[in-house]
Amino acid sequence: MTDHAFTEFEQLILNSKNQLGTSILLVLAWIASSDGHIDAQEAKQLSEISSASKHGISVQPIIRRAQKRDIEALQLACEIVASDFVNEKALRFLEMAIGMAIADGRLLPSENHILRFLADLLGVSNSSLNEIFINVTGRAIPFPSDVSSAEYWRERDNGNKRSDHSTSDKADHPSKAIAAYATLGLEPGASKEAIKQSYC
After folding, report:
1. What are the φ and ψ backbone dihedral angles of 189, each rounded to 5 degrees?
2. What is the dihedral of CA 96, 97, 102, 108, to 10 degrees?
3. What is the value of pTM for the model shown?
4. b/e string for 131-146 if b means 16 or more Cβ within 10 A?
C-alpha cells in the first residue's frame, strides 16, 4: 500500500472547518486573479467572504493556489462546489461569482469564460446565466471576445472603442489580452477549443 501525499490544497481542505467555504473561496480567487493580479477591491471581497465562511483558514494560501493556477486544486474545489450547489443554490453561487468578476468594474474575456464554465459545471443554461448577469449588472453578459481572431484586432484598430466606465469583455490593450492568455497557460492565438479545455 502506498502513502498518499496530500497537496497543499487537500491539506487546507482537510484542516478546514468549512470545506465548501474553502472551495468557494478558491474558485472566487481564481476569477479574481484571472487578469494576472488581485486588486484591492477583490482582495477585500475575498477577505470578507473568508471571514463569513468561518472555515478557520488564512485567505493567503488559497489566493496563492489561485494565482499559481493550481489545476488539481481548482478541479477539487469545483467538484466540491458542484456537489453542493444545485438548482437555486447554483444560481446564488453564480451571482457571487459574477460579483467577483466585475468587482473591478469590467468583465475580461478570461472572467467571461470562467463564468460560462461554472454555469456549465452547475447545469445552468446560457440563458439563465444571462438573466443572472442582467440582475447583477443591469446588462446582458457579452458574448466572449475571441482575441485570437483577426476581426477582433481589426475592430480595435478601426477605433471601435467602448467607454472605460462600461462593463467590457474586451481587453484595454494587447498586453491585457496576452495576460489573459497567460492566466490560462495558453499562447496568444490559441483556439477557442484550447481556451475551453484550459478550464477543464
Report:
1. 95, 5
2. -170
3. 0.68
4. ebbeebbeeebbebbe
